[in-house]
């Protein structure tokens, strides 16, 4: 049964973190943000919704980077139960897909909890001051990619980069629930 993200309190400041990534570095929101913003995508390796979304997510990450908006993926799943989400498998996925963004490991799940993340893939879009302006989905894709789907995340972040505001309508993310530790 898929999980849907709740509505967001827009304007909130990004919660701080210090997380290891598949690129061998440790990152914070400040180290990740671009000149015009940051997208944080809660994602994982095993979720069929993430697998279907990866081509569109990668396309949008590259296009956003060109306008000064960086992206980062965060995996918060319990890898002791979902072994495909272990850090070594995250490294393999990042390499296999040539991810154009850092893929971070939230082993304690504290970051997912601080953001209120509930599903994968779930997108949090921040402006240049790291204020939340978008929370929702990449596009209408589900367990199958829709290459021609309207690029909701990209369009929202382009608007945020240009004038600081996202479109009024933000549709919730839908995907696998985050796999919480007991």
UniProtKB/TrEMBL annotation:
Thioredoxin domain location: 8-159
Source species, domain of life: Bacteria
GO molecular function terms attached to this record: antioxidant activity; oxidoreductase activity
What is the protein named? Thiol-disulfide oxidoreductase
Q: Which organism is it from?
A: Caballeronia temeraria
């Amino acid at each position: 049964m898929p999980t849907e993200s709740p509505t967001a309190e827009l304007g909130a400041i990004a919660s701080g973190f210090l997380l290891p990534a598949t690129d061998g570095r440790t990152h914070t929101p400040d180290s990740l943000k671009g000149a015009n913003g940051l997208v944080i995508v809660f994602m994982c390796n095993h979720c069929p919704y993430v697998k279907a979304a990866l081509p569109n997510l990668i396309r949008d990450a590259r296009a956003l980077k060109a306008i000064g908006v960086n992206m980062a993926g965060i995996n918060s799943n319990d890898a002791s139960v979902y072994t495909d989400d272990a850090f070594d498998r995250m490294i393999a996925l990042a390499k296999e897909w040539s991810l154009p963004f850092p893929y971070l490991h939230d082993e304690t799940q504290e970051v997912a909890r601080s953001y209120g993340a509930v599903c994968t893939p779930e997108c949090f879009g921040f402006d240049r001051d790291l204020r939340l302006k978008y929370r929702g989905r990449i596009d209408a894709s589900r367990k199958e990619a829709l290459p021609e789907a309207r690029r909701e995340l990209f369009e929202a972040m382009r608007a945020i980069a240009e004038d600081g505001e996202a479109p009024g309508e933000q549709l919730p993310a839908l995907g696998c629930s985050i796999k919480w530790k007991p």
